[in-house]
User: Fold this.
Amino acid sequence: MVPTPQPTPQPTPQPTPQPTPQPTPQLSPQPTPQLSPQLSPQPTPQLSPQLSPQLSPQLSPQLSPQLSPQLSSQRKMKVYLHDNKPGDSRLPHDSGTPLSVEDLTALGVLYYNLPVDFPDSKERLENIAATRGYTNRDELEVSPETMGPAFEALLKKFFMEHLHQDEEIRYFLKGVGYFDVRNAEDEWVRIKAEAGDLLILPAGIYHRFTLDEANYGGVIRLFKDHPNWEALNRSAETDQDEYRKNYLLARSNGSFLV
Assistant:
């Protein structure tokens, strides 16, 4: 009997080796240091100046009512020693020796600048009037057109050295005028008054007034119920006037009402 042939055994197939997985580059932790500067809190100090309250003082002058008197000083008032030379009183007569508003204050002369077209000037004028008891006022135009033939004689009278037994308050609206006042050395101090200037001359101070060559001045005069504007021309008798003595005492003590 012939044996039945057996099938040749087949080799067992080997599993195909799988490729080794590569590390995912997207999961690399290296980007983190690159992001850290963006998340750093250091930019905050750069923003703080915009939020800092220290900027307020820079803005406050624009909003503070105390600035108004300083706005006036954008046009610096011209004050100087008179040259004492003869000639037309309406010329500048500038000696070249400038003085300041502080020099006027030492003489008891108060100066305010209230620009005619400035929004708060009217309110400030009312406050000054109320504080100093000026209950009345009027407007006056000094010019050849408004005063006619009396103009030259009136201007000559204004320029005589004199004093009043009450304050003299003038707020210039138009034109230019010169106030001359005596200082402690008995020199003439010339004040150039223009539109927007308010001057208060104390009772008892020797002074005089004139216009410039344009011959025009428009002013508001402020006064109390019964002002005493009688002009007392300088003389030995006037030197002994009670108001003159009180003025000299206040000037020496620096005790003027401001």
Q: What stands out?
A: Confidence is low (pLDDT under 50) at residues 1-5, 11-17, 23-73. The longest strand covers residues 168-175.
